[in-house]
Design brief:
Number of strands of chain A: 2
Strand content of chain A: under 5%
Strand content of chain B: 5-15%
Structural class of chain B: alpha/beta
CATH class of the largest domain in chain B: Mainly Alpha
Number of helices of chain B: 28
Largest interface: A-B, 59 and 59 residues
CATH topology of the largest domain in chain B: Cytochrome-c3 Hydrogenase, chain B
Strand order of the largest sheet of chain A: 1-2
Order of helices and strands of chain A: HHHEEHHHHHHHHH
Strand order of the largest sheet of chain B: 4-5-8-7-6
Distance between the termini of chain A: 48 Å
Structural class of chain A: mainly alpha
Number of helices of chain A: 12
Shape of chain A: globular
Helix content of chain B: 25-40%
Oligomer: heterodimer
Number of domains of chain B: 3
Chain lengths: ~325, ~800
Amino acid sequence: MSLWLAGLALLLVKIGLVLFVVLTGAAYLVLAERKLLARFQLRLGPNRAGPLGIWQPLADALKLLMKEDTVPAGADRPLFLAAPAMSAATAMLIFAVVPFGDSLTIAGRPVPLVVADVSVGLLFVLALSSIGVYGVVLGGWASNSSFSLLGAIRGGAQMISYELPLALSLAPVVMLAGSFSLVDIVSAQAGCPFIVKQPAAFLIFCVSALAESKRLPFDLPEAENELMAGYHTEYSGMRFGLYFVGEYVNMIALGCLVAVFFLGGWRGPLLPPFVWLMLKAALVPLVLIWVRATLPRLRFDQLMHSSWKVLTPLALANILVTGGLMAALG
Amino acid sequence: MGPGETRLAPADGPLLAGLDRIADWARANSLWPLFFGLSCCFIEQATAFTSRYDLGRFGAEVLRGSPRQADLLVVSGTIFKKIAPVVLRLYEQMSEPRWVVSMGSCANTGGMYDAYSVVQGVDQLLPVDVYVPGCPPRPEALMHGLTVLQKKIRAKERPARPILGLAGGSQGSTGPVLADGRTKDRDPRGTGYAGTRLRGSSVTPPGFAGNRAELMWTPPAAIYEPEEGEKRLARELAERFGTAVRPVSPTSDMPIFEVSPERLAEVLGHLKTESAPRYRRLEDLTAVDESARRERSGYPDFHLVYTLTSLDTAGQVRLKVPLHGDRPAAPSITGLWPAANWYEREVYDMFGIGFTGHPNLTRLLMPAGWQGHPLLKSHPHRATDMAAFTPEDARAAEPPAANAILGREVEPGGMVLNIGPHHYSTHGIVRFVLALDGEEIRDVGTEIGFHHRAAEKIAEHQSWHQFLPYTDRVDYLSGAANNLSYLTALETLTGTAVPERAQVIRVMLCELFRLSNHLLWFGTFVQDLGMMSAVFYAFREREMIMDVVELITGARLHPAWFRLGGLAADLPEGWRAAVDEIVRVFPGRIDEYESLFTKNPIFKARTQGIGVLSTDEALDWGVTGPNLRACGVSWDLRRNRPYGAYPAVDFELATSQGGDAYARYLVRLQEMRQSVRIIAQAADMMPEGRVKSADCRYGLPDKAAALTDIESLIHHFVHATRGPAVPRGEAYAATEAPRGEQGYYLVSDGLTCAYRLHVRSPGYANLQILPMLCRGHMLADFVAILGSLDYVMPDIDR
């Protein structure tokens, strides 16, 4: 009984820690993006709220929390209220299966540094990203506005199209690791990170993940120059904030997944495992910000073409080649 | 809390007072502005976000396209009666709390636009927190406005109670909405002038009876000597049409023929397709209300005025059609030139003249419910002569339905999407209605007139000199280039010669503004395609240019620095070093831009083959400027009908093939390189001498001479007070402004103001072709096409 209670307490502590780290990370990722974009654009960026602007995320979050929560007349109220949470929650849930390090030993018992080592962790991740689509589609549809609707349609089509190459690009990883568990996948990279064995899969995953994250050059669902704010045009206050949080948590999640699937997860010399994971996970958001400052946006049909005519066939070919090589080399 | 701020004493306990302070701190540091701009001021507002000013430092760079997510409405520009309902609606769509900064003289009070179409201050519609003065205010002024608002939030608001849903407290804008004439002075000069007459109102439009300028002798207008071909044309027309076509003589700028309305279509058809030379382009179509002529008997009630251009000889011809009666009609020529569509609608809107056979003769510029026709001499000039505009008026003015703009019903299964009047990609206030099938565009409808500042009516009561600052604001991105178009026409009419040095300086300034305009176009065009950083690079260079413009003219956007017969002043010390720096730095920066886009596969995929305009269409629709040259047509007024110092400089005409958005991009980048060349040559060749014509019959004399020489003193006094009287006559002149051919048609009745002034704007013709370019493309292409056309709304709506 006491063991069960201790287990529950440990779990809650782990969840609390992960959420704290992730949400703080997301808040400061926003600041980092604003500062970096400013640098790319020959500016300084926020530096007035606190020294060097470090309290800027706090000011923004508080402001959003205290802003009027508008629900437009004609909106589908329950869906409108619920949709932003789906975006944020699915992004955060991904961290349930991300291993932050090897097991620790506390009081003689091994404590794995993961909230839940699910045996089908990889499928869980893919499932969550599929559910994340609903946040965009339902939010846009429930708003009862033309721009929102167009954004929702774009979002739905885009995210479903890119799920395919995203999932297919991970098949060789599973084949190499022999498991769907993220913990096992990290273990399988003890010798050599998968990016070396699977460069093609890495690239396909990164591009698809970029599209899944709905950021430039794939930010069509909210393309401001075309749709003002796309699917979240009608959202204000913290509900809009939740979409914002979801986007940035998602960026960190993608960073963690790239680290876990291709860069050897928490493995690395000298530094503690958690630091290694965070360093590797920071790579993706930084590249995403850089790309955002650099590239123009694709058009809807061009976006679809690149998924169906380029990435998906490439990912399929990659599976065949990997399988063939594995069979040939035994 | 900054130094020197005093907070309201807390009325609540420590908990609520603490929440007050936290909320105020958070809100002051996180003021996200709505992406919203009306006119010139918006350019300076946008500049405030760029590197030299960086509003982002205050946490205020998160521009929101959706009013729901914005905290701050910066009303930057003129509030037109037609756009007022939109401004009010956007404000009401913003979530609480919300704040309003009124930026610039127009938003504050109507500014220099006390005109029938303009609301005399946004505070008649919305509560305003901070007023930022200036026309336009500099970016620093807006930054100051923002910090003043931050102080106000921190010191004067107690938001804890409204946040917790309790009674009391305060947050957001609470100021009263003012009522024009009751809680706010209607006098355009401000308060304290009650009982005294407006200056100049002893002689009032339209008749100006008792104008003392009549007592002064003026020489006749300049006389144009027709070329051999034009004399032949006159004989040809006389043979063919007999008395239906009557040559007018003498003229000041081009051959003029008076044509009877019955034979009009025939004559125009002959000139377009058969005559030698052929006049391929309908350059302009407008009208004149002749009812206030001082010698009334010599004139009909109206003249319709058609200006045609021959692309073979670069010659022009003007046809004038006399009309009689209150609401006369003439045959529509939309069958001959489809481009006549908007021009005829505008004449109908402004004068009430009908056009039989026009496909859609409805109002173009004025709102649908407008009473009267503004350019009739009997229509009021000033907003302060009309009933005050109230929020109720704004609410009552519902915008026309989308189908009415589109001109037809949308087929079942299709979708109607309104883009504008306020939208990221509209580059000003204009409304597009898209009929979509999925993301594919079936048809586009355009509603313009939101930015109608009544410049043409204002010219009829401001003296010839006073009107000059209004020209800067016609195409507010091209500054001095506007001055030149207006003055070229005026100098043609008065026969004023401009000294060589002044001409070279004018060319230098105009090319600087061409650079500045193309830079802004480049930055916003690639931003429309989603590339968000290049606009900051473009503005870095634009600031360099603005610095030089400011050094030379003392102003940034609106120099109003050219004068009839020359310039306001000579070049200041240090101009050469500043210009040389631009010439040195610029080519490398253009290379930098090109390296980002010219070969970028995404950029090419987004622009190549998008919005293709054929050469024939471009000529038929009167498209000019870079958009025309992108179709492979080598036509540029600087080369084909040279004016000023352009014959003396060496430059290549930038042309490209294909007529798509990519070609338009290439042409403008190439033009920037050529502009740098012209600027370098102008600086090198800068001749010595006067910068103002020695003949001050019309132009202002040297101020220094006015202090020593009685003739100059008299002229200075007369020209600076009631202004010079310009001889009776008319003239049209166009120059190659940055976005195409901008022409001014001036009619004088021998008085100190124009009898009629009409602006032939390049954007008007360039935007009218939009539906043709968009059909069959996708929604994202629409944005790319709009951006590639490079228009600016006051140039279209005037």
